Every structure is written in structure tokens, then in C-alpha cells.
Amino acid sequence: MPTITHEFVDATASDSTLRRFLHGLPGVDAVGLEARAASLGTRSIKTTAKAYAIDLAISMIDLTTLEGADTPGKVRALAAKALRPDPTDRTAPTTAALCVYPDMAATAVAALAGSGVKVASVATAFPAGRASLSVKLADTRDAVAAGADEIDMVIDRGAFLAGHYLKVYEEIRAVKEAAGAARLKVIFETGELSTYDNIRRASWLGMIAGADFIKTSTGKVGVNATPANTLLMLEAVRDFRERTGVQIGVKPAGGIRTSKDAIKFLVLVNETAGEDWLDNNWFRFGASSLLNDLLMQRQKLSTGRYSGPDYVTVD
Questions:
Q1: Are the C-beta atoms of 216 and 224 separated by less than 8 Å?
Q2: Do residues 159 and 167 make contact, with C-beta atoms less than 8 angstroms apart?
Q3: Residue 188 dihedral angles phi and psi, to the nearest 5°
Q4: Cis peptide, bond prior to residue 127, ω within 30 of zero
Q5: Concatenated DSSP letters for 103-148?
Q6: Among residues 295, 310, 315, 288, which one has the least CA distance to residue 64?
Q7: Which of 13, 146, 257, 294 is buried most deeply by CB count within 10 Å?
Q8: What is the DSSP letter of 253?
Q9: Residue 115 CB neighbour total at 10 angstroms
């Protein structure tokens, strides 16, 4: 199993000690959190900085298709888009990854071979997570065997909300082991956790269990990534690194559709966690339609005008 940072050995010894640790975290000032997130969202970004931010955001996208109607053809088309987001402009960066269901991972791996674009695969009975641990581990191993570089797992929100923190912790640890060398993104489904205090607790639980990334959402519920819940998670990874020396990534997912939105999130990263997280090794956007708007805005900056609606593909 992955090693636990020494200072958390006692905290994870039992359900009661883990509950004591998580409930001992400082409470979240909801009004202050939302006010700070809103204030940072008003920062003005000038033209040169905007061009840099757009390219940075493109390079941070996990281009995603997670639909029951996904086909190998659709996955190959998205892989082509991940590799060359703008076929008319070779200076446009590639996306960070292509995110698919486990049964489509092999198709994505073949399409992206040798490119440096990662293949991420959701697992653990995504998006509900309602399956036995053995099924979740098999799901994870299948994705890794197909060549996935990254695993996006969902936590058991029912167990978490019932206060069975050790069960959630042990499940994350087991999936981390099954993932092997693949990086593990742990999805909390923040829209179902009800309170900011729960989001802070889930963030620390995921990090001490071995997450490489903590991720807001599946994109399959009504409330997904927001500036406030992402800000809270950025504070958590910042504080975790200060305490342990270990850096953890953050991935907001769902509902981020425009360049303006993406740039607001990048400001949150810079002002909260710091420049070390302004890199696709440590910050990602889980998105599909976002890329199109970034490409349209990029083209506007370079030519002074928008192209027609057929400038970007409709995925």
C-alpha cells in the first residue's frame, strides 16, 4: 500500500480518530469564502496576459466525453482535437489529457500514442460510485491495463455523509494501490456534500489517503465546480503542502464553459495556491465545451475578429 505521511498515522488509526482529526479542522467562513472568490473574479486581465492565460487554460484541459453513446469514432475525433485543438494554427497548445470511460481507454491510448497527451479514465462505478469495492478495483485495473495514465475515481458520498470516514479513506487507498503508476484524481461531488466544512474535510481526507489530485465534481449533477468550492480546495492543497511538503493537484470540473470563467479560475490558483500550481501537472479543467470558447477567443486576439460558427468543431 502507499505510505502515509507519518503525522497522519495516528489520525487514520480508527474511525473515531479520523473523525476527530477531520472535525478538528477549522470551520469555513462561508460568507468570507464566497466574498473572496467573487472579489478575485473581478480582476482585470490585460491583452498580453489574456493571451497567455488562454493558452495556459487550453494546456490544462482534460477534454472529456463521458456519455453512454460514446463510440470509438467519437473518441478518435476528440483525440485528434486534443492533439491539434486548432487545425489552422499549429501554435495552439495540446490539451493535457483526454478523459473517457474505461472501455474507451484503449482507443484513446492508440490515438494519442507518443504525443504526450495523457489518457485519463473515470473508474469506481462513475458517476454514482454505487458498487462494491471489488467492482471498483476491477474497474480501475481494467482502465490501467488498457493504458490509462490517470484514474478519476469517485468517493462513496453516502459513506462520507454518514460519517464513515475510515471506509472512504480505505477505499481511496485501495484504488490508489490498484492504479499503480497512474495518477489518481479523487472526485468529491461537491454539489452533494452540502456544506463547505464537508468539502474541506473531504479535501484533507483525499490528500492523506494518497490522492494526486482532488477534483470537485463529475459534471453529472446540478452543482459542479464553483469559484468558492475551488478556492476552498486550493486553500487545502496549499496548507497541505505547507504542513507535509507534498504538492497535490486540483481539478474543477463541470460548468466551466467560457474563457472568462477559465481565467477567473486561473486567478484563484495564482492568488491562493501560488504560481507552482499554474501548470497542467497541478491544475486541470474537466471540460468539453470550454475548449471551443478558448479557441474562439484566441482567434479573436490574433486576428481582431471572430470566425463563423464553423470555426470550431461541435463535439
A1: yes
A2: yes
A3: -95, -20
A4: yes
A5: GGHHHHHHHHTTSS-EEEEEESSTTT--S-HHHHHHHHHHHHHTT-
A6: 288
A7: 294
A8: B
A9: 13
Note the pLDDT of residue 7. 74
Closest CA to 58 of 305, 314, 298, 303: 298
Backbone angles phi, psi at 10, to 5 degrees: -65, -40
Report the number of secondary-structure helices (H) and strands (E) in the chain.
12, 8
Q: Which amino acid is at 180?
A: G
SS3 107: helix
Q: Give the span between the Cα atoms of 160 and 174, in whole angstroms.
A: 16
Question: Distance (Å, rounded) from C-alpha 31 to C-alpha 25?
Answer: 18
**Residue written as cell 477549522?**
26
Give how far Cα 251 sits from Cα of 69, 113, 152, 201, Å. 25, 24, 10, 17
d(CA 17, CA 14) in angstroms, rounded, equals 5
| Closest residue by Cα to residue 165 from 30, 27, 13 | 13
How far is C-alpha 21 from the geometric centre of its chain's CA atoms? 25
CA 207 – CA 77 distance, rounded (Å): 34
Render pLDDT for 232-266 as a digit per residue (tens, 0 to 9).
999 999 999 999 999 999 999 999 999 999 999 99
Amino acid in the structure at residue 187: I
Strand partners, 187: 154, 215
Alpha carbon of residue 273 to chain centroid: 15
In one letter, which amino acid is 10? D
Q: Which residues are known catalytic residues? A: 152, 215, 251
Run means of pLDDT, 10 residues per run, the chain, 315 residues: 66 95 97 96 84 97 96 98 94 97 98 97 95 97 98 98 97 98 98 97 98 96 94 98 96 95 96 97 94 94 69 57
Residue 2: per-residue pLDDT: 47
Residue type at 94 in one-letter notation: T
